[in-house]
């Protein structure tokens, strides 16, 4: 009886001292930050931190509400991101809360200088979630990009960013990077960190392809900010990847090169629209949709100190348009088109691999299967994977099988 009474008293005491929420605040006492940008400041060793905060009264959902009214933007110059957070509280009456940040935008200047000094502390502070997106503002500042985050279809820019990132899997034109994944790649040494490439588009309709078309290719290649766009839509633009070597940005990938990274990672984009030169009339294009038939088979061996990487890629294609009206659904012609698709994709993949090898950065993550060849992690760390990747020999095989011909089973020329 005495033991039971003692247990009841202990439980009651525990409930008494743990009840309540001493750190709680009313909603109208909190300022919710939804986006954060980091840029180099004119002053030496200082940074500009831009905060985009939600205005609760503007989120009523009325027809006259828009994204400009729903947010407030403040830029602070400080020595560290932590100091900037404290200084934010000197001009905002509410207590800043960073746990709702959807995206961290890094200006290209500071990305090339190095992000290690502020990315690592972000992982330690409890308000920064690992599910936040990391993007790099290409040829612009994070502050300028945040000011252009004014979508008309969404009230909050954070919802726009979230939707854009989720739709990145539709076509593979830009990859998404979470803070947790970026940090793991930064520390692990088995793959290079990368971030989504974003930019402010001038919306003047100018066509500025980033790279030249290769043999058999009909698609132009772009990075963020160079896509020919006009209209009143948001000038914020997502396309390509920012590549990092250690914590410094060293280069970029175009939208098509980013798509090749996704394919080699085994990520299947359901709407990979692609145009290749017609095998029989090169001036015309054949439009297709392709997807992975299975995950790429990757085998890595080590010969005389050099890594040999064999990759076997199987693509399944659907023909969506044949302007020449040649019957590529027939045997004989079908094999010609399959070979043409395989050659173009093979060239795109090898171009991406050559570019990343020259930069010493491995966005695909071939280092993960490579480290399985070593008995201990210490043995793997002795291998400088960045250098080993630069000297690796890639043997790539791409096979395409046309499975469908859309809603038409036989092509025929137009009657003259």
TrEMBL record:
InterPro entries, sorted: GerAC_N (IPR057336), Spore_GerAC-like (IPR008844), Spore_GerAC-like_C (IPR046953), Spore_GerAC_C_sf (IPR038501)
Pfam families with a match to the protein in the record: Spore_GerAC, Spore_GerAC_N
GO biological process, one term: spore germination
Domain Spore germination GerAC-like C-terminal: 240-405
GO CC terms in record: membrane
Keyword entries, A-Z: Germination, Lipoprotein, Membrane, Palmitate, Signal
Main subcellular location of this protein, as a coarse class: membrane
Lipoprotein as UniProt keyword: yes
Entry annotated with the keyword Transmembrane: no
Residues spanning the signal sequence: 1-24
Membrane topology label: Lipid-anchor
Ranges of residues in domain Spore germination protein N-terminal: 24-198
NCBIfam families: spore_ger_x_C
Protein name according to UniProt: Ger(X)C family germination protein
Biological source species: Anaerospora hongkongensis
């Amino acid at each position: 009886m005495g033991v039971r009474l003692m247990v009841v008293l202990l439980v009651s005491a525990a409930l008494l001292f743990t009840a309540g929420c001493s750190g709680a605040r009313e909603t109208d006492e909190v300022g919710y930050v939804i986006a954060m940008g980091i840029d180099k400041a004119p002053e030496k060793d200082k940074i500009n931190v831009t905060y985009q905060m939600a205005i609760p009264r503007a989120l009523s959902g009325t027809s006259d509400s828009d994204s400009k009214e729903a947010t407030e933007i403040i830029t602070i110059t400080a020595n560290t991101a932590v100091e900037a957070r404290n200084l934010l509280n000197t001009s905002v009456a509410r207590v800043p809360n960073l746990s709702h940040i959807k995206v961290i935008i890094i200006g290209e200047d500071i990305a090339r200088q190095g992000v290690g000094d502020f990315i690592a502390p972000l992982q330690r502070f409890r308000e920064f979630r690992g599910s936040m997106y990391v993007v790099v503002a290409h040829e612009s500042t994070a502050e300028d990009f945040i000011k252009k985050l004014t979508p008309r279809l969404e009230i909050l820019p954070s919802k726009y960013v979230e939707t854009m990132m989720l739709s990145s899997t539709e076509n593979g034109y830009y990859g998404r990077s979470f803070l947790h994944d970026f940090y793991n790649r930064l520390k692990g040494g088995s793959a290079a960190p990368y971030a989504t490439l974003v930019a402010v588009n001038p919306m003047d309709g100018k066509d500025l392809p980033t790279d030249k078309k290769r043999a058999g290719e009909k698609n132009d290649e772009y990075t963020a900010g160079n896509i020919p766009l006009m209209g009143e839509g948001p000038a914020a633009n997502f396309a390509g990847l920012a590549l990092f070597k250690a914590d410094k940005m060293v280069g970029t990938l175009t939208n098509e090169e980013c798509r090749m990274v996704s394919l080699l990672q085994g990520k299947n984009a359901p709407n990979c629209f692609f145009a290749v030169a017609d095998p029989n009339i090169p001036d015309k294009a054949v439009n297709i949709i392709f997807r992975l038939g299975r995950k790429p088979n990757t085998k890595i061996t080590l010969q005389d100190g050099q890594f040999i990487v064999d990759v076997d890629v199987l693509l399944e294609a659907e023909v969506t348009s044949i302007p020449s009206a040649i019957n590529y659904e027939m045997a004989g012609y079908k094999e010609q088109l399959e070979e043409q698709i395989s050659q173009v994709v093979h060239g795109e993949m090898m171009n991406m691999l050559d570019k990343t090898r020259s930069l010493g950065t491995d966005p695909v993550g071939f280092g993960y299967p490579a480290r399985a060849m070593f008995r201990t992690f210490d043995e793997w760390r002795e291998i400088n994977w960045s250098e080993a990747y630069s000297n690796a020999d890639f043997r790539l095989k791409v096979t395409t099988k046309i499975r469908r011909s859309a809603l038409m089973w036989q092509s025929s020329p137009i009657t003259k």
